[in-house]
Amino acid sequence: MSAKPLPSDFVLDLHDLASIVLHCHARFEDRFVNTQLVEVNNGTTRLQSLPPHILPQQWDIAGAINKQRRIAYILRKDPSLSERVEVNTFAHPEGVKLPPSFKLGTRELEDILWRCKTFDSGYLLAYVAQSVFERLPGTARLHARTSSGHEIFCAPSDVMVAEFEILPHETCCMVAYKPRPDLGPTRVDLEQHLSGMGNIVPWIYLMIGKPISEDLDTDTRVVFDLAITQIGGRGAGGELFALERGFDYHNKLLCRYAEEQGDLQVSGKLMMSPVALRKQGDTLTDMVMERLQKLASGNVDFCRYCGKDDISTRCTKCKKAWFCRDCQAPGWKYHKVWCRPSVQE
Ligand SMILES: [Zn+2]
Ligand SMILES: [Zn+2]
């Protein structure tokens, strides 16, 4: 791995970092590589693509006893797919079975894809971001700009870890199956991933900036949450992560998707104790650092929305921010806040 240090005056834009981390994570995670969506079920109709008993008992409890909103995603594994599934290839080509009046557009597909990918990755992603900050030169600056027009700069060491618990408004079950015709015509291998299921979920984000005030109303620090899609959420600018002022995050964003439980525990450093998880985090950090080195050496042609690199189209107004063709529209809600027209010479 190349270990060329980043320049001492490097400025890391956190919105860019988030897109890059999530893109690297999507290339790296190995559970939803070749799974395609075949059904969305919200408990109002019978499961159509698999026998109903494959849903876990918690699914019935969440609906019948806890009266929780429920969503199940049925995914089919196809080991013969040669390319990693992305949002454009995520819907199964034979169609996706949907509950009545459920709309499945690109945005919804993207929500589901990311919800699967991040369902248990909150700690991993926070650890990666923290490791990146630790590897920056001490003289580098972090730059956070939110979709509400709030902006701060700070040192890479002005970062705290915040942990608390949430109760998601919606319980979610992902079932990935692989047909096993070798064992019988109706046999399948099953993998279940559950999120919420009426239980509280540990939650983590990084708090960026120098503490100005203990009071959330006046504090200028910014929340950096890379796993909001895990509970069906997005950032206030429609991003696949949240980068918001603390007050906005807690009072306007998170409450749309979950109820906060207990107190916020704040610490200086996230210890990733399980060795395997820490190793994953370190490998992912290496990938991200390599991308940052490219960025520092002038290769800024990566998509500001999805993080993909080596793309060829950019914002026609500022001519500075690159976007994939399909990402221009979803990326504009945030970008328009900070886009400045380029001055013609
Ligand atoms: Zn893109
Ligand atoms: Zn622009």
Automatic annotation (TrEMBL):
GO terms for molecular function: zinc ion binding. InterPro entries: Znf_MYND. The keyword Transferase does not apply. Keywords: Metal-binding, Zinc, Zinc-finger. Residues 303-339 form the MYND-type domain. This is MYND-type domain-containing protein.
